[in-house]
Amino acid sequence: MPQSVEKTLDYASLFLEPEYKEMLSAKSKLENMPEADKVKEIADWTKSWEYREKNFAREALTINPAKSCQPLGAVFAAAGFEGTLSFVHGSQGCVAYYRSHLARHFKEPASAVSSSMTEDAAVFGGLNNMVDGLANAYSLYNPKMIAVSTTCMAEVIGDDLQSFINTAKEKGSVPADFNVPFAHTPAFVGSHITGYDNMMRGILENFWKDKTRTPNDSINIIPGFDGYAVGNNRELKRMLDLMGVKYTILSDVSDQFDTPSDGEFRMYDGGTALEAVAEAINAKATVSMQSYCTPKTLEYIENIGQETVAFHYPLGVSGTDDFLMKISALTGKAIPAELEKERGRLVDAITDSQAYLHGKSYAIYGDPDFVYSMARFVMETGGEPRHCLATNGSKAWEKKMQALFDSSAFGQDCKAWGGKDLWHMRSLLATEKVDMLIGNSYGKYLEKDTDTPLVRLTFPIFDRHHHHRFPLWGYQGGIRVVVALLDKFFDEMDKKATASDDTAYAFELTR
């Protein structure tokens, strides 16, 4: 065998060795795999218009949806509060998925515990698991708050979280006055943004219920589920600080998912102080940075008398303009000259590179707010967002996207696809080609299969490192997006220039 102590190969090299090629060939024969020509024939047919019509006609099957499940969003939301431990009422395997998904993206530990429900709990209910689990979590991990969410198992059998938590407190699992907010987050409906919304509402209701509101001049900001939250939240705070705004970020994960390596393990780091959450009921208004992440939360906040405002992932010139002008109107604070200069720099960057951005066509997928904002921004650069897909997007979202397309000449041939998955996107890319695909790491298979260059700009990003440390929001974030798009375009130009001697003249130093 080629592997030895003196010669250790990674799997990419190992599987090219003769022994492994022979093994894989024998495996194919044993499994009666079709011949390579037949596989290619069928693969080519699945890129045809005929197959696209069959693909878009399917109703009972989802293939590679561009979304995750509710509890993931709940765990993410809870991570943004001071000393908070997520307690997921369900099986250990489900919680392992949420933790690994976040850890692989942020390259940071993602702490969460499970009530470890198994067959007996599925039959008799998970009350004992809740009582014992809360006691263990409280004594072992010393949290300041435990945020409870659910998996499919707990929801199917109908476990009552409020009753279970009350019973656990009566039995002494945690002190009677200890904060244990909860949210029912069935994974078989909605998506991670639904779970984020449910948990945010649950946490606010835990602190605000039966409280009397005394309005002040501060505002609350809810960032929403965001894989770039480390960079975006810090950019958001920088802009607000420049304006002199008094604010509270409700669920700030920027430190929790960006802890330093200095010899100290931080199970909890940063996050919104619990005292600040309680005080946030008195804010003048609450601003959501992602409308589709927070409908239930904003409804609850409106019902207690606060003004609410919702944006769609403020990115680019217009997106940032709208956000800053609304903050100025809410607070009476002027937009400082420094931010005005940053706006001019973003416009200058777009202008400098207009020759390479104008007329480019894009396919964009991800969460509804992200897709909306990215489509809006590429139209600002003269691009055309031809295929816009959100698996967790609704018919109402499609209409909103169409209104956006109709507002610009660059949106004439563009369409939004709500409720569709990445196998639908494959058909779109194969039959109506575009210059670039914008999405997450799962898009690399579409890039390979349809020869569509991919730029990773949304959660999750597993196969590249540290993207989340840099903002996409604001004018500074807009420049970051422009650079990412241009780098990919230039790489593709260089790749084509070096493909043969006939195109070598285009391998240019200066562009």
Features:
single chain; 511 residues; alpha/beta; Rossmann fold; five-stranded parallel sheet; four-stranded parallel sheet; globular; EC 1.18.6.1
Give structural notes.
With 511 residues, the chain is an alpha/beta fold. Among the domains are: 70-208, Nitrogenase molybdenum iron protein domain (Rossmann fold); 352-466, 3-Layer(aba) Sandwich (Rossmann fold), CATH 3.40.50.1980. Helix content is 48%, strand content 10%. It is built from 22 helices and twelve strands. It has helices spanning 11-14, 18-30, 36-45, 49-57, 70-78, 92-106, 119-124, 127-141, 152-157, 161-170, 192-208, 229-243, 274-279, 295-303, 316-331, 337-352, 354-357, 368-380, 395-406, 422-431, 443-450, 474-497, and strands at residues 84-89, 112-114, 145-150, 219-222, 247-249, 285-288, 307-310, 361-365, 384-390, 415-418, 436-439, 454-456. A five-stranded parallel β-sheet has the order 10-9-8-11-12, with helices on both faces. A four-stranded parallel β-sheet has the order 5-4-6-7, with helices on both faces. Helix 19 links the parallel strand 9 and strand 10.
| Mean pLDDT reading | 96
Supply the CATH architecture of one domain. Answer: 3-Layer(aba) Sandwich
Spatially, the strands of the biggest sheet line up as 10-9-8-11-12
The oligomerization state is single chain
CA radius of gyration is: 25 Å
Tally of helical segments: 22
CATH topology category name of one domain: Rossmann fold
How many strands appear in the DSSP assignment?
12
CATH class of one domain: Alpha Beta
InterPro entries: ChlB/BchB/BchZ, Nase/OxRdtase_comp1, Nase_comp1_CS, Nase_Mo-Fe_CF_bsu, Nase_Mo-Fe_CF_bsu_N
Organism: Zymomonas mobilis subsp. mobilis (strain ATCC 10988 / DSM 424 / LMG 404 / NCIMB 8938 / NRRL B-806 / ZM1)
EC number: 1.18.6.1
Enzyme class: oxidoreductase
